[in-house]
Amino acid sequence: MKILVIEDELALCETIVSYLEEEGYRCEQAATVELGSEKVNLYEYDCMLVDIGLPDGSGLLLVKELKKCHPETGIIIISAKNSLDDKISGLDFGADDYLTKPFHLPELNSRIKSLLRRRKFEGKQELVIDKITIQPENKQVLVGGEPLQLTRKEFDLLMFFVSNRGRVLTKESIAEHLWGDFADSADSFDFVYSHIKNLRRKLLERTGTDYFQNVYGTGYTFIA
Amino acid sequence: MKLQTKINIRFLGVTFLVFSFAGVLFYFALDKVVDQNIREMLESRKAYILLNLQQNTPTSESIESPDHSIFIKRTEKMRQYTVFSDTLAFDQEEKELIPFRKMTFTVHSGGQFYEVILLQSLLESEDLLIVIVSFMVVLFVLVLLALFFLNRWLSNNAWKPFFKSLSVLNNWKIGESQVVSFDRTGISEFDQLNSTLENMMQKIRTDFVNLKEFTENASHEIQTPLAIIKSKLEMVLQDKTLDDQQHQRIRAAFESTIRLSKLNEALLLLSKIENRQFVKTSEIDICALVQSKLDYLEELFSLKQIEVTVRLDNQVVFRMNPLLADILINNLVSNALRHNIENGQFIISCANQELTISNTSQHGEMDGSRLFLRFAKQTTSNESNGLGLAIAYEICKNYHLDLNYSYSDGMHHMKISKKS
């Protein structure tokens, strides 16, 4: 899986790249529209992460260009400008997703995974993790061939954990994944806790395995 | 009061004063002339009578003229001077007392003194005065009316370009990109005003765009380093070799970064609202908006086992930006949730074009005057950045809505209503 990261902030770019490389992706970097355009025209990528505010122009130009030569490549815009206009025009140009800085790395990872699943396998792929089988297309979870009833939030939560297996997920990033912009509007940590408690119980009952590990009051890790 | 009306009233007032003063002066002058005239007439009659009496000595004691205007009678004393006086006499023809001017003098004729009284009717001159004065009054009213309409017509014409500029200004929206240009009026003052306005509007627009760019760039410049810090810390948190204490410390730093970025976002939002950068508006059905959030709301409230009461029978429609409407409702609802208590109450109701959100709280009555100020935290809750209500207030202000706080029966009430 090849991912092109176009981000002019070197430190951020490196963090993203090293995080994604740990996930097993091959990453390439570009810091300007010019460089990005060169790479987009020369090589094929499975996914492109593009920052809008680049030193020599707007990343939206690259979105346009990529859509023309490789329409099958997934595009996620990462921008510090939380402006509605940018979001709308970005998605209009053919971007698949939009993340506002500062985002959580697990969130980015999860979105890339879900985007690639949709793009590459048209959503039909099954994810098998230990005794759990997940069908992302119809939001089904099977344990030993038998469907496991999960609420929508619990399903989202499971997908988020599965996408970031073995990593520490902070309560903040979980809350933001589940509620997006609403994350700060409620006692979201309590909700994170209650949702995880329910999911943990359901999985434990059916599989006999506790997949969740508490991490020093920081968050949780999904181990499988 | 309209400028035209004001000018007209003053103009007419001054004209009226001048005319009245001139009228009074004119009256007295006319009166004087008439009086002078009558004196001269009496003087010439006196000369004639003197001449006549010196040639012919009167035969009888007293003589009266047939028209009762001359009385001559013999007298003992000689008076050296002539006396003028006014008197009333009965006029046979008019059958009423009419004013007369009387002239009394004595004449020496044939060794005898005669006192002569000459009377001159003032009736004619009075009639003349009345005619002249009433003519003057009519003229005066006519001139006044003519001046009034002329003035109005003239100033209407003269101020036309001004009102045109005014309507252009009224329709001007800062966020819209089209350039405003005024027509040439041919009146140098207005042309000057218009060109000054054009320059000013141009300047305002550039400033506005600059400010907009600045706030967005500032956001970018702050969010990017924050994103770096956040992602680096997130990477460190993955390190399995960290001990508990190190974990706690990194987590504390991580949490602060998140708070900082949320604060940054909130401040940016506030300045964007203040700069009126949310131009597009539409009719927002507030009840429908709340309804669409109910699923989410119920989930949020269920954990604290808060009793949620929803009364959305009456429609409440406000004209505002959809995004801001969303933020407004979110802020108020999350505020009501954040400060709520276990097994507390939450009531949201629409009635009479008002939306009221009520909640129980662990705090008593708040200071309503400080509640909507920035950073006016009245609790020590870490999750609140103290900007939620300031943003809600600013949004309401932007759309001429009132946001009121009240406290009764142990519940806090936030009420949004149209400004009366």
TrEMBL record, chain A:
GO annotation, cellular component aspect: cytosol; protein-DNA complex
Positions of the OmpR/PhoB-type domain: 124-224
Keyword Transcription: yes
Any one GO molecular function term: phosphorelay response regulator activity
Record Pfam families: Response_reg, Trans_reg_C
Biological processes, Gene Ontology terms: regulation of DNA-templated transcription
Residues annotated as domain Response regulatory: 2-116
Keywords: DNA-binding, Phosphoprotein, Transcription, Transcription regulation, Two-component regulatory system
Modified residues (4-aspartylphosphate): 51
DNA-binding region: 124-224
Protein name per its UniProtKB record: Two-component response regulator
UniProtKB/TrEMBL annotation, chain B:
GO cellular component: plasma membrane
E.C. number(s) listed in UniProt: 2.7.13.3
CDD domains, sorted: HisKA
Catalytic activity: ATP + protein L-histidine = ADP + protein N-phospho-L-histidine
Coiled-coil segments on the chain, per record: none
Protein's UniProt keywords contain Nucleotide-binding: yes
Domain Histidine kinase, residue spans: 217-420
Xref: Gene3D superfamilies: 1.10.287.130, Histidine kinase-like ATPase, C-terminal domain
One term of GO molecular function: phosphorelay sensor kinase activity
Compartment list: Cell membrane
Pfam families the record matches: HATPase_c (PF02518), HisKA (PF00512)
Record's keyword terms, sorted: ATP-binding, Cell membrane, Kinase, Membrane, Nucleotide-binding, Phosphoprotein, Transferase, Transmembrane, Transmembrane helix, Two-component regulatory system
Major place of residence: membrane
Topology relative to the membrane: Multi-pass membrane protein
Transmembrane segments: 7-30, 128-150
Protein name (record): histidine kinase
Organism: Aquipluma nitroreducens
